[in-house]
Amino acid sequence: MPEEHFETTTVCHVPCTACGCVCDDLAVSVRNNRVVALERACPIAEEWFATQSAIDRPVAQIEGQTVTLESAVAKAAQILSLADAPLVYGLSRSNTEGQRAAVLLAEMLGATIDTTASQCHGPSIMAIQEMGESTCSLGEIRNRADLVIYWGCHPAETHPRHAERYAVFPVGSRIKNGRSDRTVVLIGHAGLVEHWRLDRGGAMADLVVPIEPGSDFEVLTELLSLVRGWPTSDEPAPSCDHPNTAQRSRRAALESGVRSGTKDAAVEPRSAADSRELAKLARLMTTCQCGVVFFGLGLTGMVADRDPGNPMPGQHTVHLLLKLVAELNVHTRFFARRMRIYGDVTGADNVLCWHTGYPFSVNLARGYPRYNPGEFSADDLLARRDVDACLLVGSETYSLLSSESQSTLRQIPTIAIENPGTALPFEPTVRITTSPCGLSTGGTVYRMDGVPISLRAVVTSEYPEDAAVLKQIAAQVNG
Ligand code: SF4
């Protein structure tokens, strides 16, 4: 039948799972079981709905050959049952139901299970475990925050509607005039942050603070000094033969000084940012009614960029940020929130925590959970070739893995459970294409602030759901 003969229906309040904002106000028009129009979707969402709507891939493949779903499930179960050290990795593009099924399968296998958090906000999670987190919902930010700081993240690029819906432009119960009642600050590396914008319309921040790349820790130290009322100094760091040693010893001295609440002027760093801007920022922080720092991977550092002596770069930096925020609560109400990238990476952390007590990098080989990022992180295990079979539940962070890990994945039996819009750049042993959450699968996902959102399936799909496939594999492993 010609396309125009089908009726168009519009589904309102559809949540988008393309990024951690999970905006739940999209209007999706559907005709002949196809998405034909979107309202309030940002460019990332438009691309996501377009690519995820593809139906050209077979449901199941083994070594690139189309097979029945039953055959693919049987092959996957056989591979995982025979493996001595299986790895289950990904989970952030699934929903709670799929994540729960993946964790139960990992428990059954005695596998290591890791989420994509280990490739992005893992250092932040470890800092939060050490320091605690001054937390809030995005609704609280919308209603109360009159100072909004983005640190190490470019919201217009990664979360295009974050400012519009939650943090900068909306009118709130205590923010009657929306944008004009808020002060917005961007902090990032010099040469980059000057080009950052708050949304795709090019909205500018009120204050932009460029800092030397890699000096976030020093800037936080200086801010903490200002908030505590200590004088700051531009004295040079103590001399030392090796520049790395000098940097480490200065950092160690700073950390110990900060942790003990004492200050040694001799180890004060050179200012890594304009000291007048930092003084202004410290004043804004202590005098606002309610402030928040949204921080991203520019602050934590990409795990992929780490050096062997520092497996979780950014952990100490985030620790210091959380300490600063905790101390700001002496003056006012202040929060720190992570800008989570992948749609349901927050849910993946939550579900793994419910089952094992730990949010990522968990080994279940001994029949009880062991948590050790670095040892049990997917990238480390794969790079060391400590894995002999891998189940990828979503492969969107494959490109973030090290080249050694990517090479291992190409050599060991790999099972990829992928949505239509993603594909590994090589042919996995088993590929099962599943129905995308938020398009043709419902369920629950967690927004970046930990608020659960119920999804709507706006079209039907011939692809099975993640949870169903994982349960079928588990049934065969068990049998
Ligand atoms: S900001 Fe994120 S959740 Fe919101 S519409 Fe864009 S991609 Fe979707």
Helix/strand/pairing category: alpha/beta
What is the rounded Rg?
Answer: 24 Å
- Count of extended strands: 19
- State the CATH architecture of the largest domain: 3-Layer(aba) Sandwich
Count of structural domains: 3
The name CATH uses for the topology of the largest domain is Rossmann fold
Biggest pleated sheet = 9 strands, mixed
Q: Average pLDDT value?
A: 89
Bound heterogens, unique = iron/sulfur cluster
The N- and C-terminal alpha carbons lie at a distance of 46 Å
Q: Notable features of this structure?
A:
9-stranded mixed beta sheet; Dimethylsulfoxide Reductase, domain 2; globular; 3 domains; 16 helices; 5-stranded parallel beta sheet; 35% helix; 479 residues; Rossmann fold; binds iron/sulfur cluster; alpha/beta
Notes on the protein architecture:
By secondary structure, this protein is an alpha/beta fold. It folds into 3 domains: 3-48, no CATH class; 58-120 and 343-478, Rossmann fold; 122-232 and 271-338, 3-Layer(aba) Sandwich (Dimethylsulfoxide Reductase, domain 2). Helix content is 35%, strand content 18%. The chain is built from 16 helices and 19 strands. It has helices at 43-52, 69-82, 96-109, 122-131, 138-144, 155-158, 162-167, 216-228, 243-260, 275-287, 297-300, 315-328, 345-356, 378-383, 403-411, 466-478; strands at 8-14, 26-31, 34-39, 60-62, 65-66, 86-90, 112-115, 147-151, 183-189, 207-211, 290-295, 333-338, 362-363, 370-371, 389-393, 414-418, 430-433, 444-446, 452-454. The strands form 4 sheets. A 9-stranded mixed β-sheet has the order 5-4-17-16-15-6-7-13-14, with helices on both faces. A 5-stranded parallel β-sheet has the order 10-9-8-11-12. Strands 1-2-3 form a 3-stranded antiparallel β-sheet, with helices on one face. β6, α3 (96-109) and β7 (112-115) form a beta-alpha-beta unit. α2 crosses α16, α8 (216-228) crosses α10 (275-287) and α8 (216-228) packs parallel to α12. The structure holds iron/sulfur cluster (SF4). Residues 16, 18-19, 21-23, 41-42, 44-45, 159-161 line the site of iron/sulfur cluster.
